[in-house]
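Dear Dr. V.,

Thank you for agreeing to look over these. As mentioned in my earlier message, I'm a first-year student in the group and I'm still getting used to reading structure tokens, so any feedback on how I've presented them would be very welcome. I ran two proteins. I've put each sequence directly above its structure. The first is here:
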Amino acid sequence: MKTNRNITRRSRQRIASICGIFLLVTACSNAPAQRIAAKQAIFTAKTSTNFAFGSVRLGKAMQKTFYYQNTGSDTLFIQSLELNSDSAFTIQFATLTLPPKGRGKVIVQFEPQARQSYSARLSFAVANGVAAPTVTLRGNGVQPEMHSAIEAAFDGTAPSLELGDDARLKETHEADGNSCSLGDGQE
């Protein structure tokens, strides 16, 4: 009987060792993986990256706003903004550092000084290798159109206008020679 006890004791020890190893392996394999996610800022455009200002009268200004957000888990550091343009485009911005979920904006103003087409690119330099889009800007400088109420009265044919010495305005319709004077009523 002594032998049976030794076998039984040895068997129990082996079984306990095997169970211990099994429990250890099971516990390790079932343990939740501890992943360390790298924190990273993500620059996300919230508006179109193509700004078409259309036709703007010379000397007048039009503004549009470019909105962006940091959709990442780390702070977004904008190192600089570069506007490669004619002087018709200017930018205004305030925030160069955005916390996670933070929002920012750049106000772009277009003020043409000549009758021509304008284009430019607004680029962001962002720290830590974060990608940022380039914003394309386009607009046309145009002169204001002047229409005469008298022209409309003569079916679209252009009348001639004269300013007399007595500061009266005289209009003559070229097609039929009719004239009318605007002023103090004296001829």
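The second protein is here, in the same arrangement:
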Amino acid sequence: MTQPKTNPLSRHKGIYLLPNAFTTGNLFAGFFAIIQAMNGYFLSASIAILIAMLLDSMDGRVARLTNTQSVFGEQYDSMSDMVSFGAAPAMVMYEFVLQDLGRFGLVAAFIYIAGAALRLARFNANIAVVDSRYFQGLPSPAGAGIVSSFVLFCVTYDIQISHWLVAGVAAVVTVFAGITMVTNIPYFSGKKIGSKTRMSVVPVMLGLIVVFSFVLISPPLMLLLIFMLYAISGYVIFFVKHKKGIAVSDAYGEMDLHEMRGQQDLFMQNNTFDEEVVDPIAKIKEVVQSVNDIKSVNDVNSEK
């Protein structure tokens, strides 16, 4: 019994639809968080941002697994991230507590959303030159995780948001996340986990099991601690590498400064040329001689 033939064109479109469907879910979660924050439902708003983070982590992996990466998908993902990890966290935090600070709260929220926009724009511009092992600046999903987990923690444990101390801490957390996103602080990306030359996947999986076990104890508190520790880890990596003389930049990735100088010297030693090659007069003589030979051959052929 022959099986019905499938239309290759429809399958082609279906594969490209799959990663964009996750991106659309990410966009909807961010939009839903904004609406919930405007209506005062901050618990569901913060959870929606966390769901957006989960969907954002899946669309790129699905695109790579199905070999359906596209420029459209990259741009669509950036637009969705701007809503879910830029506008939504700023809106949720402002409606939750920052509005009690007046203009200062407005400035804090704007610093965050501007930092997220600059972070996403820089990521798209430098995606081909940065070291894939590290993010350049705090990733926007991690910044959104800090803000949303802070709101989730305050709502779950019924912390009095009218107290000026809570509003001040919220402003500091928001500004910290916004500024850290536009710095050159390196953050571990996890993209090389499992590679033979990087690290074994077994200890990483064991670490994740331990982390998830602690999260189950108190999810709001542990999520806040995890995101804050990740934000601080970038500064630790930066100072450790700076102390060891290792440069982590957007153009060269990770390379020892002494190694960079050594490679430059080695290049100059291995690229010495013969005088015949660099001598312009000798090159001109060779070209003239070649032209004369061609003319002599043509003359002989014409006589025949």
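From my reading of the second output: The chain has eleven helices and four strands. Residues 273-303 form one domain. Does that match how you would interpret it?

Kind regards,
E.
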